[in-house]
Amino acid sequence: MQLPLQETSKDFEAQLKKAKKAAQDIFLHIPEYKDCPECEGEGLAEYEVGVPDFSAYFGGEIETRVGECENCLGSGRVEDDGMNDDNWRDGHGS
Q1: CA 36, CA 93: separation in Å to the nearest integer?
Q2: Could you read off the pLDDT of 24-78 as tens digits, one per residue?
Q3: What is this structure's pTM?
Q4: Quick one: which of 34, 44, 24 has its CA closest to 79?
Q5: Residues 6 or more apart whose Cβ sits within 8 Å of residue 72
Q6: pLDDT tens, 59-71?
Q7: β-strand partners of 61
């Protein structure tokens, strides 16, 4: 059975579109991005920093400070690796 010319043309265009997409994925890897799981897209994260106490011999305390996120370098976005980030802080992905 011969398909009408229009249906054949539409099928060809769909296949051509898929082939172009595959070529772009291979040669022009354009990554997709998502919100950073560490700072939740803010670019800033809380870190614990050891602060020495010079009046005590082995003294000091740990303070919480806000700084540029080390995971996304402050951009708030990271490349989407396809991993589930629900428990990122506990196990760095699942």
Answers
A1: 12
A2: 777 766 678 899 999 999 999 999 999 988 887 778 899 999 999 999 999 999 9
A3: 0.52
A4: 34
A5: 36, 38, 39, 43, 78
A6: 889 999 999 999 9
A7: 51
Q: What tokens appear for 74 in the block?
A: 């402050």
Q: Report d(CA 31, CA 82) in Å as an integer.
A: 11
**How many C-alpha atoms does 83 have within 13 Å on its Cβ side?**
13
Assess contact for 83 and 94: CB atoms under 8 A.
yes
pLDDT score, position 93: 43
Name residue 49's amino acid. Answer: V
Q: What are the backbone angles phi and psi of residue 14, rounded to the nearest 5°?
A: -65, -40
Name the one residue in this structure whose structure tokens are 């919480």. 64
Query: What one-letter code names the amino acid at 82?
Result: G
Which residues is 85 bridged to in the sheet? none
Provide the 8-state DSSP code for 65.
E
Quick one: which of 21, 17, 35, 28 has its CA closest to 72?
35
